[in-house]
Design a protein that fits this description.
Layout: H1 15-21, H2 24-27, H3 31-47, H4 53-72, H5 85-97, H6 110-145, E1 151-156, E2 159-165, H7 166-190, H8 210-216, H9 227-232, H10 235-261, E3 269-270, H11 289-313, H12 326-350, E4 352-353, H13 355-362, H14 369-378, H15 383-400, H16 409-415, H17 424-427, H18 430-436, H19 445-464
Antiparallel strand pairs: 1-2, 3-4
Helix pairs in contact: 3-4, 3-6, 3-8, 4-5, 6-7, 6-10, 6-12, 6-19, 7-10, 10-11, 10-12, 11-12, 14-15
Bound molecules: arginine.
């Protein structure tokens, strides 16, 4: 067992406790950030007169070599005796530069070290999640491009309400993902202050130029301004997991919509075989497992959010070991969200509308009755009365088992005499019902095409632009 704190102890720790508190199994993921932070700390120590130029150079070279070794060797951590990634890096450094490695931790604590590592890691992870969101947005926009003229029943209360364009449905999720991207960028911006130099809790006693150190590590907001907060703060982890939870919530709603669309009962959508599975017993089955897992995993990510906030809520300042519990939740939440985004993009790319089933369903169930009322309004009837009259027409059509536009002439003359001159079959057709909703944000093909143009432009701009957040 390699410990960084053995001096004041006369006896060893219980092996069960040591394995209980060991975090190397999961915080090893921070090795790149730990090495980058350590190299920057070495430069800061040189600036403070703690290390000579030669010592700093030697440490930097060894850290660089260690980084290359770890990148090369997938088994570098196997059987390592260290309690965490920080102890691991320091021991490996010692194997290269001997006692000089023992100088590196001057004025630094694992508390400000892990806080810094985690923020550096998060910047990369949020950047990658942002790229996953953009990829799914592009897949949904491409689906929308081929769906403008596919009509679907639109639902409220899961009852057929008014017809919509299938492209409009796809673009609704693009809107959600665009907000998700803003949230990721926002979380990334707010976390961008450097905790290193805060020491264990009170600030380091060495004359470290923290502004320069923050700049060196790429933190755009400079150094954190309160050492107690800096080592105790995990807002960024919570915000990132919250942003991931909302991403997954959106994906889960899409999954729920599409699982329904793909049922035999609805029959609107055919999912590709590459994201479906069969049954070990029932030979005919084709199940939407990919989407079901997306929906299921959303619960797991939300669980991490609740767990993380619960861990934080009772913690006294400053650092407490409880904070070590942040990592598995954070890593798994962001990994899971990224995987859900990628699999959803696969499902979207392979999906095919069953346009005839969609059209038949969109034209059914009196989804054009609002338009019948609107036609009466255009003929001078106040809307409340028009609503009442259209409702009566629906009731009569239900009794006769026909659609509104198929009501016999005598019934029409009795129920809606103001519309005698109109071609109701045309005026109440799905195409007309859709085309009327040409307001900004409406489902008319003209409005949807305008949004598609905007999204295509935005995605092209994004592809050409510098990233919103810093890549690693
Ligand atoms: N493994 C610890 C964590 O993840 C690192 C910090 C430990 N600090 C300490 N004083 N024990 O939080």
């Amino acid at each position: 067992m390699s410990r960084l704190w053995g001096g004041r102890f006369a006896s060893a720790q219980d092996p069960h406790f040591l394995s209980f508190q060991n975090s190397l199994g999961f915080d090893r993921r921070l090795w790149r950030e730990d090495i980058a932070g350590s190299a920057a700390w070495a430069r800061a120590l040189e600036g403070a007169g703690v290390l000579s130029k030669g010592e700093r150079e030697k440490l930097e070279r060894a850290l660089d070599e260690l980084g290359r070794e770890l990148a090369r060797d997938a088994h570098a951590f196997d059987g390592a005796p260290d309690e965490d990634v920080h102890s691991f890096v320091e021991r490996k450094l010692g194997e290269r530069v001997g006692d000089l490695a023992k100088k590196l931790h001057t004025g630094r604590s694992r508390n400000d070290q892990v806080a810094t590592d985690l923020k550096l890691w998060l910047k990369g992870a949020l950047y990658r999640l942002d790229a996953n969101c953009t990829e799914l947005m592009a897949a949904l926009v491409a689906l929308a491009e081929r769906s403008v003229d596919v009509a679907l029943p639109g639902y409220t209360h899961l009852q057929r309400a008014q017809p919509i364009s299938a492209a409009h449905h796809a673009l609704a999720y693009v809107e959600m993902l665009a907000r998700d991207r803003e949230r990721l960028a926002d979380a990334c911006d707010r976390l961008d202050a450097c905790p290193l130099g805060s020491g264990a809790l009170a600030g380091t006693a060495w004359p470290i130029d923290r502004a320069k150190l923050a700049d060196d590590l790429g933190f755009t907001r400079g150094p954190t301004r309160n050492s107690l907060d800096a080592v105790a703060d995990r807002d960024h982890a919570i915000e990132a997991v919250f942003a991931a939870t909302l991403v997954c919530t959106h994906l889960s709603r899409l999954a729920e919509d599409w699982i329904f669309f793909a049922t035999q009962e609805a029959g609107f959508l055919e999912l590709s075989e590459d994201v479906s599975t069969g049954s070990s017993l029932m030979p005919q089955k084709k199940n939407p497992d990919a989407l079901e897992l997306v929906r299921g995993k959303c619960g797991r990510v939300l669980g991490h959010l609740v767990g993380l906030v619960t861990t934080l809520k009772g913690l006294p300042l400053a650092y407490d070991k409880d904070l070590q519990e942040d990592k598995e939740a954070l890593f798994d939440a962001l990994d899971t969200a990224a995987a859900c985004l990628a699999v959803t993009a696969l499902a979207v790319r392979g999906a095919r509308w069953r346009a005839e089933r969609c059209a038949a369903a969109a034209a059914s169930s009196y989804q054009n009755s609002t338009d019948l009322a609107d036609l009466l309004v255009a003929a001078g009837v106040p809307f409340r009365s028009a609503h009442e009259r259209a409702g009566a027409a629906v009731r009569r059509a239900l009794e006769l088992g026909c659609e509104l536009e198929a009501l016999p002439a005598a019934e029409r003359a009795r129920l809606v005499p103001e519309l005698a001159a109109l071609d109701l079959a045309r005026e109440l057709s799905t195409a007309r019902v859709l085309a009327r909703r040409a307001v900004v944000g409406g489902t008319a093909p003209s409005a949807v095409r305008a949004e598609l143009k905007r999204w295509n432009k935005e995605l092209a701009l994004h592809a050409a632009q510098a990233p919103v957040t810093t890549p690693r």
